Amino acid sequence: MKQVRVRFAGFRNTDDEWVNVKTDLRERSIPLEPAECHMVNVGDLVMSFQEKEEQSLYFDAHVVAIQRQDHDATECKCVFLVRYDHDNSEDEVQCSKLCRRPSE
Questions:
Q1: How far apart are CA 59 and CA 101, in angstroms?
Q2: In which element (H, E) is residue 23 found?
Q3: Could you give the CA distance from residue 23 to residue 67 in angstroms, rounded to a whole number?
Q4: Closest alpha carbon to 52 in 22, 19, 89
Q5: Spatial distance between the Cα atoms of 61 and 7, rounded to a whole number of angstroms
Q6: How far is CA 73 from the centre of its chain?
């Protein structure tokens, strides 16, 4: 098992954490561009912006359904139904609220 030490800005080194590289780290997610919506499929893991009264943050989510719409490359009109991994809630979002994993 390969681990790395994570040091958080503004904290002491006693607050460092050791994390598993394979299970706890991933590449940076990329904002989904309107012309890239065809790259997202049902079942994909994405990051989706969830807005609530107490906080608005990006969370891991899985795509449950997609309502594809005709549109140009500058504005996506598709609607993505996502289920957030942390609380199992579902939300319909536009592509402007989604980030995808880098292509392999």
A1: 13
A2: helix 21-24
A3: 32
A4: 89
A5: 26
A6: 21
Answer whether 0.90 is exceeded by the pTM: no
Q: Is 34 in contact with 71 (CB distance < 8 Å)?
A: yes
CATH number of 27-100: 2.30.30.140
Q: What gap in Å lies between CA 77 and CA 70, rounded to an integer?
A: 7
Alpha-carbon span 40 to 26, nearest angstrom: 18
pLDDT tens across 61-97, in order?
999 999 999 998 899 999 999 999 999 999 999 999 9
Q: What is the C-alpha to C-alpha distance for residues 7 and 23, in angstroms, rounded to an integer? A: 18
Domain ranges of the chain: 27-100
